[in-house]
Amino acid sequence: MNIFFYIAAVVAIISTIMAISGKNAIHSLLFLILSLLAVSVIFYLLNAPFIAALEVIIYAGAIMVLFIFVTMMLNVGIENKNGNKLTNPRKWIVSSILAAILLVDFILALKNVPASPSVDQVILPKQVGISLFSTYLLAVEIAAILLMAGVIGAYHLGSQKKKVTHRFLEKK
Amino acid sequence: MKILLIIAGVLLIALSIAAGLIWVERRLLALWQDRLGPNRVGPFGVAQVIADTVKLLFKEDWVPPFSDKPVFIMAPGILMITILLTFAVLPFGPNFYVFDSNIGILFFLGNSSLGVYSIVLGGWASNNKYALIGAMRASAQMLTYEVFMGLSLMGVVMMADSFSFCTIVEAQKGGWFIIPQFFGFVVFFIAGIAETHRLPFDIPEAEGELIAGYHSEYSGFKFGMFFVGEYLGITLISAIIATLFFGGWLGPSFLPPVFWFLLKTFFFIGLFILLRASLPRPRYDQLMKLGWKVLFPLALINLIVTGAVLIFLK
Amino acid sequence: MFSILRSIWLTFLHIFHKTETVEYPEVKPYLAPRYRGRIVLTRDADKNERCVACYLCAAACPVDCISLQAAEDESGRRYPEFFRINFSRCIFCGFCEEACPTYAIQLIPDFEMAEYDRQNMVYEKKHLLISGEGKYPGYNFYKNAGVDMGVKGKGTGENEEMPVDVKGIMP
Question: What architecture is domain C32-141?
Answer without folding.
Answer: 2-Layer Sandwich (3.30)
